Amino acid sequence: MKKVFHILMLMVVIIGLSSCEKDDPVIPNEGELITTLIYTLTPQNGGESVVLSFRDMGMGQPEVVTGTLKANTNYSGAIKLLNEIEIPVIDISEEVKEEGDEHQFFYLSTIEGLDVNYTDVDEDGLPIGLATQVVTKAAGSGELTIILRHEPAKDAPGVSDGDITNAGGETDIEVTFEVDVE
Amino acid sequence: MLNKFTYLIAFFVFNASYGWAQLCNNSLVGHVVDQHSGDAIAYAAVAVEGSNKGTITEEDGSFVLMQLCNSDKVLHISCVGYKKAIINLDSINGGNLQIKLLKAVSTFDEVVVNANYISEAQQATKKVNSEDISQGANQNLAGLLEAVSGISSLKSGGGVSKPVVHGLYGNRLPILNNGIAQSGQQWGNDHSPEIDPLVANTISVLNGVDALEYQGRSLGSMVLVEPARISAVEQLNGQSNIFFESNGRGAGLNLQLQQSAPGLAWKVNGTLKKRGDQHAANYFLTNTGVEEANIAVQLEKKVNEQWYIDAYLSSFNTQIGILRGSHIGNITDLEEALKRDVPFYTKENFSYTIDAPRQTVQHHLLKFQAKHLINSRRWVHFTYATQLNNRKEFDVRKGDRSDIPAMSLTQFSHYLKAGYTSLLGNNWKWKAGLQFTFIDNTNQPETGILPLIPDYNSYETGLYSSFSKKMDDWDLDFGFRYDRQIQNVAAISTTVPREIQRYNNVFSSYKLALEAKNYLSEDVYWLMGVNLGTRNPEVNELYSNGLHQGVGGIEEGDSTLKPETGIKVNALINGQLWHKMLFETDFYYQYIDNYIFLNPQDEIRLTIRGAFPVFKYEQTMAHIYGADLNLSYLFSSQLKVKGQYSYLRGHNVSDNEPLIYMPSNQLRFSFVYELERLAGFEKVTIESNYQYVFQQKHLQADQDYVLPPDGYGLFGVRMSAYKQFKRHRLQAYVKFDNLLNKAYRDYMNRMRYFADDVGRNVVIGLNVNF
Fold first, then answer.
1. Which top-rank group of organisms is this from (chain A) (predicted)?
2. Could A7 and B491 be called an inter-chain contact, meaning their C-beta atoms sit closer than 8 Å?
3. Cα torsion B242, B244, B249, B250: sign
């Protein structure tokens, strides 16, 4: 019985000793996170650039800045992706460019006459979509949706022409802008 | 006639030691088992002839007699439903005492065949035995349990599945590994229990009073995985189990070695399994391979007549591939995946490669137990166990990050228990105990992603007490348990800059259980049980916050959740009629107040990755009720027909809508043809079976992205035979699952959004005892 009592006492001591507070968790380095997409449209014949941006810091409503395009104009489009949570800010578009064969942007527009064409290619000669040409025609308004897919089937029918139907892959970015063409 | 059943006993390994000396201080330890099934017989009376000494066997069939004199030479062992056995201790030469009881039916040969049949009636405790486990070596724990009526599984493809008992799983259904609540990430629907079923001798479902002595946060039921005790044979012996399966081109090897050396008995059990991509009826399920390597070591030692100690160490290591086509970025991706017949990324060729998305999990358990006999009617036992669980989940990520886990959790736990058992007068038995569990759950920062669940420590102290009384026709059981849990949580904020948020919670939970069993005749009994209990909210339910990748939704916990309170009533009638018909019925009703569930919100949250549905942990009043019906009929000593039907319904009473992820109703038939001898083989069995799973119609269209899949029927065939060599016993089996290669999807498989379920599978296995 004495042994039994000793074991019980030992158990009580162990339980007593173990009551301590959980250590502070280590805050992970969120290097891969994308918080911001900036789409800069520069008129090819000179003039002021239009900047569309979408900033999502993970705190509720994202901050969306939209703009107005001119009718019958050709724009050069450039995408920038940033991680603004980390300090200093990380440029994720560099990473997408380096792994161009695993990424593709898609531009879906409901605006009559607005066309987006790819002007860049990856190592296989297939489009990435970081650089584009945007062509506007008549005035109008609608939505422009920009989608970034990771590991899409870039050689599937229609995909290199910007048709997302057969692309598959995971969506890394999907943002929509209300755009007016005047 | 009886020899044909001895193979079953061969599986039952027992431990007994037998000491003999002068005067009246001898002791005797033994086991009482069913002669046919090898199952332990609980509550058998063991009496010493010509004295008032005696005892009653425990749940595992074990008993201890102390203060025996040299003149105490004859034991009488009796139990309701069995023939009384009389054992002369002089005829036992040292070693082991295993007492086999024969069913009390009749001694006619014809009826002895039926005796096998009746022994299953005693098995109503919902159990998977060692024969089922060795013939199902290619399956995981949940897969094996599916054969038991009332149990189904929640799957995430072929490699991940968790058991569902009467509609409850995960946080509500603890799994006890060798009596210790498995300490891992049970909250995840895509987290399989980290236990190798080939280590186990029996897998059973505990209900009511039986479950009270285990510390685990449940609402009644628990799954108990128990390894066999070490056989008392002094020579080195063991068994080997090997299998091949066509689907996934898998193979597995299990080897068990054991020896009862004087002073120390040991057993080592190791398993290796590997499987590549599985195949649905019409295409490969790319990246669904599984690799597993497990080992378990058991040691048992008798220190002296009063102290017995044992140790158990197990290590479970697995890598599981998750269907590549099921990895989605947002809800648009899911909608696209739903439209496809063949999932994205499906390759035309088979492969053993496991790429992201994948899971690697290690689980290690170390347990020490000491049993101290105060006298033959009272004993205490002490348990210490520690567990380490490492779970890493790898997603398809940018750059080289696919090799960096997207989720990496380490859980470390300690468990202490002191238990006391006393046999009181008038066939009363009293059990009581104290338990303590410490859990330390930590996210590893290597992920580069904010964790879905926070870091925490949990301290849980509990006590229980239960009484049972055995009468001629009645068994009565009742008991209670109380637990007090302290949670110490340290979370990272989702706001910028990141901050540490701390929460401290104290919860109390209690359980009460009452059970009455009545034998209407030797062959028929009914049982009624009432369980009342509470379950504390888990950390994931309280503090989850973020995108749940596999589900494509944002999950938010609620830190104000209250404990769930559940009351369950069940009634069953089991028995056999005319030595021909066996029936088992189980009716249950469970009412749960403050039932915690993930409720889809009206809000669609806009993020840079697109729009996501938001799910919040909320509470409601819910009820789950159902019935499990089993009927077998023996047409002759060779042909048996079995039928099984399970009905279940879960409903959210407050909101008047169905509960999600409730198993569909099921129907099963099987024809078993068994020849005692054929061409030099023994017990040659051919079984053909059919399983029909109904469509889950109890669900509203807005509760899921798609309608639940149609009902489906699967055919299967199984053949097995035994061959006895001089010193070895060989068992061979062939199984054809989904024989017709039917393309189907199951409501309880989360991969149903993306791909068909597994197609035809042929399994060939060999089992040798040596």
1. Bacteria
2. no
3. negative
Closest Cα of chain A to B490: distance in Å? 6
Spatial CA neighbour of B88 closest among B70, B80, B96, B76:
B76
**Interface A-B: count of C-beta contacts within 8 A:** 144
CB B184 within 8 A of CB B411: yes
Number of other CB atoms surrounding residue A42 within 10 Å: 16
The verdict on residue A124 lying in a domain is yes
Tell me, yes or no, whether A35 lies in a domain. Answer: yes
Asked whether the ipTM of the predicted complex exceeds the cut of 0.90, the reply is: no
Domain count, chain A: 1
> Up-side HSE of residue B371: CA atoms within 13 Å toward CB?
18
Give chain A's end-to-end CA distance (angstroms, integer): 94
Q: How many domains does chain B have?
A: 2
Residue A78 within a domain: yes
CA distance B633 to chain A (A): 53
Q: What is the largest CA-CA distance in chain B?
A: 85
Smallest Cβ–Cβ distance between B382 and the set A7, A102, A151 belongs to A7
Do both B22 and B89 map to the same domain? yes
Give yes or no: residues B265 and B116 share one domain.
no
Contact B608 A34 (CB under 8 A): yes
Reported as a single tens digit per residue, the pLDDT across B707-716 is: 899 999 999 9
Q: Which residues of chain A neighbour B374 with C-beta distances below 8 Å? A: 1
Residues B131 and B104 in one domain: no
pLDDT tens digits for range B610-654: 778 888 999 999 999 999 999 988 888 889 899 999 999 999 999
Domain-ending residue, one of B92, B120, B148:
B120
Percent of chain B with pLDDT over 70: 91
pTM of the model: 0.82
Q: Are residues B167 and B61 part of one domain?
A: no
CA distance A94 to chain B (A): 11
The whole domain housing A161 covers 31-181
Question: What are the tens digits of pLDDT across the range B398-407?
Answer: 777 888 898 8
- For residue B230, the 8-state DSSP code is P
Same domain, B35 and B67: yes
Q: Which amino acid is at A152?
A: P
Which residues of B are less than 8 Å from A19 in CB distance? 459, 486
Summarised one tens digit per residue, pLDDT across range B400-429 is 788 889 889 999 999 999 999 888 888 888
Query: Is A6 a member of any domain?
Result: no
Q: Which of B120, B154, B169 is the last residue of a domain?
A: B120
C-alpha distances in Å from residue B680, one per residue of B7, B36, B54, B609, B675: 15, 22, 45, 66, 11
Co-location of B113 and B141 in the same domain: no
Please, where are the H alpha helices in B521-621?
539-543
Q: Which residue of A has its CA nearest to B457?
A: A22
Range of the domain at B595: 124-769
Tell me the average pLDDT across B737-761: 92
| Confidence band for A18, pLDDT divided at 50, 70 and 90 | low
Phi-psi region of B456 (alpha: psi -120 to 50; beta: other; left: phi over 0): beta
To the nearest whole Å, the CA of A180 is away from the closest chain B CA by 21
